[in-house]
């Protein structure tokens, strides 16, 4: 029986896009289902086995990173990336060496637990002071990642892998910078990350998974245009 | 060359104890170094390569779950558990099946990102209303875990594994309940979790890694005795 894979995503969210990148790299056929997080229809709730079988997480927790594989619901993009790599073993996204794997996992956690919360704050804050502080913290975390990247082409080395996928949010930051005119990730300050994201968006797989810059930019303007970020 | 392993822990923190459980299960020899999180000595900062090589996290982020293996620093107990299982492959702590592995990882994340923050709040809150709400949320999350445990002996099935180690905090909750006289995890409400933690504390490996109940209880009293929890 062929694998039945459904990805429940939100087009503008990098969480679901991470899963998409891994599925495309592995050549796994999947059906994409767009979720409307803020207006969940009763039928979505009823027929989406993810919401029935795992603790339902309302926005902003439900981030569009749920997957269904042969009837088995999965949630949390970082967990799903591990699952995909263990289930379809060709084109591995993890390094082989346990220590390198641990480093990749550590930095992916860092991105989700340290970087992402301050990025959210920097994007959505209504108060200028709070917003300035959040941008400052964003820069601090990006500096840490810039120095982890070193002179490598990708976090994964010569080719991209798990941590590059986890770090996709940095591409989003660049798009938000263009759209809102705010220096989230200034090129002069983060030359390595800038080149890195350039390599990623030119990659055949990533190209299909990053939303069109204009569309995502327009979304950022509509959603965050009135926040302190754009003043 | 024999493996050189150092565990930098805090005696009362379950984060470092998770690592200890895995090391003992694997029979890995290690040196235990007690960290004083709130009074880091200059020499600790200087000679602890973990703090030099990975972004330093001050309290409450530095949770006593750092390890050094043959000169390689590691941080974050859940990441270290994966590393230990990949480095010393006997007595595996993860299930074999990728879907079971994904479930275990999902619930471990749930414990750290959902359960632990409300437990912290329930323990430390100075306001009665806030504290009551935090206890309510703690119960909700414990109900979810109780129904995930089902009728199994351990989360890992017939024997304990990764998720049981991650869920150790529940033992801490039971000790806090005794010490502070607050119903964090009432027996009648959580019969399965109660039996589960009883099995764990009687286990030869866990017995060595859970601090003496009186000592941990006294710590809870000293630290949280003046909070709303104990009124």
UniProtKB/TrEMBL annotation, chains A, B:
The keyword Transferase applies. PROSITE patterns: GST_CTER, GST_NTER. It catalyses: RX + glutathione = an S-substituted glutathione + a halide anion + H(+). Residues 97-224 form the GST C-terminal domain. Residues 3-92 form the GST N-terminal domain. Keywords: Transferase. It is an enzyme of class 2 (transferase). Its EC number is 2.5.1.18. One of its GO terms (cellular component) is cytoplasm. Pfam families: GST_C, GST_N. The keyword Iron does not apply. InterPro entries: Glutathione-S-Trfase_C-like (IPR010987), Glutathione-S-Trfase_C_sf (IPR036282), Glutathione_S-Trfase (IPR040079), Glutathione_S-Trfase_N (IPR004045), GST_C (IPR004046), GST_C_Tau (IPR045074), Omega/Tau-like (IPR045073), Thioredoxin-like_sf (IPR036249). PANTHER family: GLUTATHIONE S-TRANSFERASE U8, GLUTATHIONE S-TRANSFERASE, GST, SUPERFAMILY, GST DOMAIN CONTAINING. This is glutathione transferase. The lineage of its organism: Eukaryota, Viridiplantae, Streptophyta, Embryophyta, Tracheophyta.
